[in-house]
Amino acid sequence: MTQGCNVAFIGLGVMGYPMAGHLARAGHRLAVFNRTGAKMQRFTKEFAARAAATPREAAEGADFVFCCVGNDDDLRAVTLGEGGAFTGMRTGSIFADHTTASAKVARELFAAGAERSLGFLDAPVSGGQAGAEKGRLTVMCGGDPDVFAKAQPVISAYAKACRLMGPPGAGQLTKMVNQIAIAGLIQSLSEALNFATRAGLDGMAVVDLIKNGAAQSWQMENRAATMLGGEFDHGFAVKWMRKDLEICLEEARRNGAELPVAALVDQFYARIERMGGARWDTSSLIAALKR
After folding, report:
1. 160 tagged catalytic
2. 6-166 has which CATH code?
3. 3-state DSSP: the chain helix, strand, coil percent, rounded to 5?
4. What is the value of pTM for the model shown?
5. Which tens digits make up the pLDDT trace of 118-158?
6. 3-state secondary structure 42-102
7. Residue 58, Cβ neighbours under 10 Å: how many?
8. What is the 3-state secondary structure (H, E, C) of 157-207?
9. Secondary structure element (H or E) that encloses residue 141, with its range
């Protein structure tokens, strides 16, 4: 693993905070920026890091700038403009974006970075908060091979798998595939567990048996017990999944792919939001079936 780089991290949310922590533990000299100052203060007390007043200030002198914010508009806000990270980055430095955003904005920022002789990777992640905390994320990258080769050893501080999937935007497209697959799987698991309960079966006994066969999945292993118990105050929030599915559906309209299940599951998530579950874990789809 590459050590001793000047690194900046923008966005200390539930994913960014532990990811930045792994970079600090790996021996990198770290600057951080977050819109909420309290999180920066907590981070700098926990780790040897410098708090910056703006993304530009965080990025000044950095070899690598990493980012994990909310959406396309948030990403543009922290990269472009007078206070944006791109303005502070030196020639030849690399910006790697871990936000789940659109392929369109990835290509836009790749081009904007190239005009300033900056490297850019779209590098969304999968693995959730637990994966970030354990340093076991899957990172899906889009960009130039030489830029990826330089960034990958640094990213390895919090990744169990990191792969270049193609040109700019390919990382975001791969993350869309991931979210499409998860959405249908969680709905199917919700229906199966609800069916088991209504049939008078012991739900966990069923899971303990069928997880040894073809029905096994990460969701079954990690979420079945909490789904059966109606516990959703953890994990990846419904409102963020709906944001991701909106990106998937928009891209599908562009490329002609049919996503009937993803579109339907998005509406089921809308029902969860109406139930007050915008911040519940995505596994809360089962709550709509229990009503």
Report:
1. no
2. 3.40.50.720
3. 55, 15, 30
4. 0.94
5. 999 999 999 999 999 999 999 999 999 999 999 999 999 99
6. HHHHHCCEEECCCHHHHHCCCCEEEECCCCHHHHHHHHCCCCCHHHHCCCCCEEEECCCCC
7. 29
8. CCEEEEEEEECCCHHHHHHHHHHHHHHHHHHHHHHHHHHHHHCCCCHHHHH
9. strand 137-142
CATH of 173-289 among 3.40.930.10, 3.30.70.270, 1.50.40.10, 1.10.1040.10: 1.10.1040.10
23/155 Cα distance (integer angstroms): 8
Q: Which helix H or strand E contains 102, and what residues bound it?
A: none
Instruction: In whole angstroms, give the CA distance from residue 167 to residue 188.
Output: 33
275 class by beta-carbon count within 10 Å (0-12 exposed, 13-18 middle, 19+ buried): middle
Neighbours of 61 (CB within 10 A): 14
Residue 3's pLDDT band (cuts 50, 70, 90) = low
Of the candidates 104, 134, 175, 243, the residue annotated as catalytic is: 175
The residue ranges of every structural domain in the chain are: 6-166, 173-289
* String of DSSP letters for 230-266: T--SSSSBHHHHHHHHHHHHHHHHHHT---HHHHHHH
Q: Which residues pair with 66 in a beta bridge?
A: 9, 96
